[in-house]
Write a structure and sequence with these properties.
It is a single chain. This protein has two domains: about 45 residues, no CATH class; about 70 residues, Immunoglobulin-like (Sandwich), CATH 2.60.40. It is built from two helices and seven strands, in the order ααβββββββ. A four-stranded antiparallel sheet has the order 1-2-7-6, with no helix packed on it. Strands 3-4-5 form a three-stranded antiparallel sheet, with no helix packed on it. The longest helix has 16 residues.
Length: about 150
């Protein structure tokens, strides 16, 4: 049989000793490294309440701020400040989980990508420019695909 009590879940005396000797900055750096290797370098904008990480917002175009994203029962609204001169060169694309803003005039700038708080439909998105802001309305996806998993015996 397995020696369950030997180190289940940890060897308590050694684990407690190691835990007390840990440096919080080293732990934070390790977590940041693991998370960036899994989710990419700009993962922090997708996770709320990250403390210092909130200051490391995604690279916005000069003069731009992060968008306001608001969720209702049926829609997701994104409000983004944009100069009127940039409207003609701006292209908006989205997947079910991300919103991408592409600047057609300057291909050197990578597209801005923002995670959406809920899945959205592929069609029915509306965008309009009002008083220095682009307001984007995305329709939330109500049908979530459900997969049944058989338990093997």
């Amino acid at each position: 049989m397995f020696p369950w009590n030997k180190q289940f879940p940890f060897n308590h005396s050694e684990f407690t000793k190691q835990f007390q000797e840990m440096n919080p900055k080293e732990i934070e750096n390790y977590i940041q490294t693991v998370m960036s290797s899994i989710f990419g370098n700009d993962f922090s904008k997708n996770f709320p309440f990250q403390g210092e990480m909130q200051n490391n917002q995604s690279k916005n175009l000069p003069g731009q701020t992060a968008p306001e994203i608001f969720e209702t029962n049926d829609y997701i609204y994104v409000k983004l400040a944009v100069n009127s001169s940039e409207i003609n060169s701006l292209k908006i694309q989205h997947t079910t989980t991300q919103l991408m803003l592409i600047n057609n005039q300057n291909e050197d700038i990578s597209p801005l990508t923002f995670m959406l708080p809920a899945p959205v439909k592929r069609k029915g998105t509306k965008a309009r420019y009002i008083d220095g802001f682009i307001e984007i309305q995305l329709i939330k996806l109500k049908e979530h695909s459900i997969t049944e998993v058989e338990i093997s015996k």
